[in-house]
Amino acid sequence: MGVKILKLVGVWVLAFSLLLIFLLVPRTMDIQSNEVGAFVSPGYTYSFAVHWDNIQLFFTQLMSEEGLGMDRYNQPLLGHAWEMMQRSLWLIVPALVLSFFVGIAKGVFDFSTRNSRKKTLGLHTTWLGLSIPDLFVIVALQMGFMYLNVKGIVTGLSLYGYGSVEIIIVNIFYLSLFPAFYIAKATYNALSAEQGQDYIRTAKGKGIAHFKILYIHMLKNGLAHVFLHTNTMVLYVLSNLFVVEFLTQYRGAAYYFKKHTEAAQRIITNDALVVDVGAVVAFTFFFTVLILISSIISQIARSLLMPIERGDEA
């Protein structure tokens, strides 16, 4: 297990290094004008020498007191990124926990009711949840809340901004919606794969209760396969985080990351495409570390639940 975790860290270092090299690509343009000085068109020519100078300058500043630079309030960008990341973690962590446990419970329910009339509430709702774009559901719910607020049916409901408890709860629900259905499907598939195993037939032959077989034997063994989807679930949550924070104006890491990566809307000067590299690097670092941590947790969980992952004999 230790070797696999080291490999995960090594892959993260390589991936983050490549992202850093990409972020330091020169973005200065050549503005072409006519004889009277009027703007004609922008041009761009990549220069390896300028790219290398950017890399050297970045690490020189990083090792100095400047670090990743300062924000407009003269505060370190790394500290600003971490503060905003903590705001987003109030959404990310509960959403991951909620979607994981609710998804497993939904998957068990789907499996238990697959041959009964309750299948409509089980497999069919999971299929529907995976088929409808979650962005459509988020926008529809947000508009529904606004309608209730305007009509006075529900008053005092804060739907935008940062700081209120209700916006945090609503955003957690938005973020966990699709991943919960995704984990439910993964759980159902894992239980279906365990159904035909020899130990299941043996347990049934001994007269062990169906509830005990399902939760103690099948679910325990199936969880190892469910944890294979942890990284995908985290990526779903993080990708939706940008949408949710933008739609609700929640001032978190994704919101400010988008602000720092926005280029100018109009090309006026030759640095119109330049972004705040220090801020982008800071936010990218925290987002990728979160993905790395989820990968390590997934690997540890699989090693504890799956004998083959531990290197034991099957």
Fold topology:
Blueprint: H1 2-23, E1 30-33, E2 39-43, H2 48-63, H3 77-112, H4 123-131, H5 134-150, H6 165-195, H7 198-205, H8 210-226, H9 230-248, H10 253-261, H11 277-305, H12 307-310
Antiparallel strand pairs: 1-2
Helix pairs in contact: 1-11, 3-6, 3-9, 3-11, 4-6, 6-8, 6-9, 8-11, 9-11, 10-11
What does this entry look like structurally?
The protein is mainly alpha-helical and 314 residues long. It has a domain at 82-261: MetI-like fold, CATH 1.10.3720. Helix content is 69%, strand content 3%. It contains 12 helices and 2 strands; from the N terminus they run H-E-E-H-H-H-H-H-H-H-H-H-H-H. It has helices at 2-23, 48-63, 77-112, 123-131, 134-150, 165-195, 198-205, 210-226, 230-248, 253-261, 277-305, 307-310, and strands at 30-33, 39-43. It has a two-stranded antiparallel ribbon with strand order 1-2. Helix 3 crosses helix 6 and helix 8 packs antiparallel against helix 11 (277-305). Mean pLDDT is 82; it is low at 308-314.
